Automatic annotation (TrEMBL):
Gene3D superfamilies: 3.30.420.40. This is fructokinase. PROSITE patterns: ROK. PANTHER family: FRUCTOKINASE, TRANSCRIPTIONAL REPRESSOR MPRA. It comes from Candidatus Paraluminiphilus aquimaris. CDD domains: ASKHA_NBD_ROK_BsFRK-like (cd24067).
Length: 299
């Protein structure tokens, strides 16, 4: 996928906690502007103002948005670009595509935040792209994006694997989960808010021998197993704020291997699992770079 474009593109990473905005030209992305996610009117108007300031008089040719969801990404749908039944208060029914298209009168490409991040992790700066890749973000929510044969894999909508259920950890049976829709789905049990609901602290604030680390690794290892069995990616990338916690990644790999139980012999060793499950190569920049790519493709 060619990342370069002669157009000027606004990249928007829309998250449940913050929006990140940047202007891209060619294959370069400028300074990031961060805006807290509050109510829609306040947040979106601040994003528009930030884009205008960063444009510095340039003509905007396209906008790319990688957004928290659920969000309608079907271009044939009457509600294309509209946020669905999100637990983020006040945001259900907000249409990001129409809002920004009207504000700037230019084409707008929109995808889920994890699909955007997966796209960037598979392509950005790689001489040889990864054709089959899955990206997991763990933060305010838990989402999964999938690249298959080099392109984003969607059905009638984007994947929602953060809402599957797995057996509870043996030391976590008293916790009922925080997801307002499913309670004890993966997001309800292992997202940042779930961690805080149990221990009134973030995972990074807790000692590395605290049981929270074992429980978190268990749930994310279970999720990784489901993704690998369903999609068989070449790489499974772990991103988002929670996955920045020191020492968590090796524990997730161990729990993944335990959960797989030797079913795939080529993954029944630590080196193969370490090659498969990796941290985000682009760090916390995956989403904004993916948003730029979405905009560049629609320019």
């Amino acid at each position: 996928m060619d990342l370069t474009t002669s157009k000027t593109v606004a990249a928007i990473e829309a998250g449940g906690t913050k929006f990140v905005v940047a202007i891209g030209r060619g294959d370069q992305i400028g300074a990031r502007v961060t805006i807290p996610t509050t109510d829609p009117n306040t947040t979106l108007s601040a994003v528009v103002d930030a884009i205008k300031i960063e444009l510095d008089g340039d003509t905007l040719n396209a906008i790319g948005i990688a957004s928290f969801g659920p969000i309608d990404i079907d271009k044939q749908s009457q509600t294309y670009g509209e946020i669905g039944a999100t637990p983020k208060a006040g945001w259900a029914g907000v249409n990001l595509q129409s809002y920004f298209s009207q504000a700037f009168d230019c084409p707008t490409g929109i995808e889920s935040d994890v699909n955007g991040a997966a796209l960037a992790e598979a392509h950005w700066g790689r001489p040889i792209p990864i054709n089959h890749l899955a990206y997991v973000t763990v933060g305010t929510g838990i989402g999964v994006g999938v690249i298959h044969n080099g392109i984003i894999a969607n059905g009638t909508g984007h994947p929602e694997m953060g809402h599957i259920r797995v057996p509870p950890h043996s030391k976590d049976t008293a916790f009922s989960g925080v997801c307002p829709f499913h309670g004890n789905c993966i997001e309800g049990m292992a997202s940042g808010p779930a961690i805080f609901a149990r221990w009134q602290a973030t995972l990074s604030d807790l000692d590395t021998d605290h049981i929270a680390h074992e429980i978190e690794a268990y749930y994310l290892g279970q999720l990784a197993m489901h993704i690998v069995l369903h999609h068989r990616p070449e790489r499974l990338i772990l991103g988002g704020g929670v996955n920045q916690t020191p020492h968590l990644l090796p524990r997730i790999r161990e729990q993944f291997q335990v959960a797989l139980a030797g079913y795939l012999p080529n993954l029944d060793n630590a080196d193969a699992v370490a090659d498969l499950i990796q941290p985000a190569r682009l760090g916390l920049d995956s989403g904004i770079r993916g948003a730029f790519m979405l905009g560049a493709a629609s320019a």
